[in-house]
Predict the 3D structure of the following.
Amino acid sequence: MESKGTRVKLIIATIKPFKLEEVREALTEISVRGMMVTEIKGFGSQSGHTEIYRGAEYAVNFVPKIKLEIVVEDTMADQVVETIVKTAQTGKIGDGKIFVLDVSQAIRVRTGETDADAL
């Protein structure tokens, strides 16, 4: 079914937890009106590390991350991605990943508005 409204994109970003507030502020400055935030654990290239706790060494296979889910109009997607990269980047391993997906349909439950109007 072809959507009638303006196309929208879902941007999923994983970032380091201490970068959340800075990224949120930067996104607010470029008029992002909402996002979903989830505390997650995961691993990428670093595939965990070892730590010492009370004298015992143990493996930390998953590291804490923040997952952001942001739905924006297609025309804003590149700017949102650039803002996240610029703000979340530390230059160290584990800075995160960003995925951009097409959204086939978006609906605001309260009003029934669709696609970009639902944002």
User: Anything to note?
Assistant: The first helix runs from residue 20 to 29. The two ends are 20 Å apart (CA to CA).
